[in-house]
Design a protein that fits this description.
alpha+beta; Threonyl-tRNA Synthetase, Chain A, domain 2; four-stranded antiparallel sheet; two-stranded antiparallel sheet; 13 helices; 8 strands; elongated
């Protein structure tokens, strides 16, 4: 009597082979490694055990080994175990062309110069709407403000870019966003195409931009407070609502300059651009989602950062309803980009005491740069 032997399904055989290849590459790093089977997921392959060396060193070795067979490891801590999840994809550096970045930069230079000239001419333009057609050279008066805001934004994003590249992340050059409104731009962004490797990379890239932009904007604002004109206060004139740090600077510079009662400092366009850059830096440091502050708080707290994010989002909604409706725009941006922060590939490696201390100082800076209503209503 002959007995029929069932042949293994080709996909099952392939999966078992993949598991075997992966196990062979991690058993010397993950003690007592056992395979985690999940019947509902035929794609995920995971192992648990205990790493026998530093998680950063182990991850670097695993990443190189897994890449040989087309996988990227993710490292997690669960129920007292170190869990290695094999993601069937290898993230590689992409070759991108800089022509789009250059075009957007030139367009932003044009829009910021135009809007800078509008602010610079002010009352003259209100009285004569054809002013720039009659005297096109006046458009150049907006160049100082344009260079100020572009410098702040450019240094901010280039700092992100340099630090991202230092950590081996695939990052684009800055994309400036031109608009013929406000100061002529909605800011600038870089695109990071690869996942964060660990919390240190997340933290370093997150704080690099705001701190670099802050270092550029703050001296310009201080100098501008000394050279901006002093004029009598005009009743009914809208005033800028400065955060605590800028209030201190304003009080100090006005006391040094000896401004008499009934007079005030009227910011020139360059100083206004620096003020705007500092305000946006404060908002960008809010600890939520894909904002730079969101990167910092996730690096500090991990998954607990979501609780902070919910609180921040609720506060923004309240401020939008009661104080300044511009917060709705920021809330929409946060929701669109994602208010929950994804974990890095290696979520086990610690941030370290030095970065944790710097992170707390950055949170303090956020408080000093925050104002509920940047513009008086």
């Amino acid at each position: 009597m002959n007995k029929t032997i069932d042949e293994p399904h080709p996909e099952a055989s392939s999966r078992l082979e993949q598991i075997g290849q992966l196990r062979a590459r991690l058993t010397d790093l993950l003690l007592d490694a056992e395979t985690l089977w999940k019947q509902s997921d035929e794609v995920t392959i995971a192992f648990r055990g205990h790493l026998n060396q530093d998680s950063e060193q182990a991850y670097t070795i695993l990443r190189e080994r897994f890449a040989e067979i087309g996988y990227t490891p993710m490292l997690r801590a669960r129920d007292g175990y170190d869990v290695v999840i094999a993601l069937r994809h290898v993230f590689e550096q992409k070759q991108t062309h800089w022509s789009v970045n250059l075009i957007l930069f030139l367009l932003t230079l044009m829009t910021t110069t135009l809007m800078g000239a509008v602010l610079e001419q002010g009352e003259r333009l209100v009285q004569n709407h054809r002013l720039f057609f009659q005297q096109p050279e006046l458009l150049l008066t907006g160049l100082p403000a344009a260079m100020t805001i572009i410098s702040i934004l450019g240094v901010h994003e280039l700092a992100h870019y340099v630090v991202a590249r230092k950590h081996g992340l695939d990052s684009s050059l800055p994309f400036f966003i031109p608009v013929p409104l406000g100061l002529g731009t909605l800011g600038a962004i870089i695109r990071i195409h690869t996942p964060w490797e660990n919390r240190k990379a997340l933290f370093d890239v997150g704080i690099a931009g705001p701190l670099a932009g802050f270092v550029v904007a703050l001296p310009i604002f201080i100098i501008g407070m000394f050279i901006s004109p002093i004029e009598p206060v005009v009743p009914g004139t809208a005033s800028l609502q400065a955060p605590l740090l800028l209030q201190w600077i304003e009080h100090w510079t006005e006391s040094v300059r000896g401004i008499p009662p009934g007079y005030d400092t009227y910011l020139n366009t360059v100083t206004f651009a620096a003020w705007f850059g500092l305000i946006v830096t404060g908002v960008n440091l809010l600890p939520i989602g894909q904002l730079d502050g969101g990167h910092v708080i996730y690096a500090l707290l991990g998954q607990w950062a979501q609780i902070v994010g919910i609180a921040v989002l609720a506060a923004i909604a309240v401020l939008g309803a009661l104080v300044w409706n511009g917060w709705y725009i920021w809330a929409a941006f946060i929701m669109f980009s994602g208010w929950r922060h994804p974990p890095p590939l290696n979520n086990v490696a610690p941030l370290g005491k030095k970065r944790a201390i710097i992170g707390l100082l950055v949170l303090a800076l956020t408080a000093l740069l925050f104002t509920p209503a940047p513009f008086a209503l």
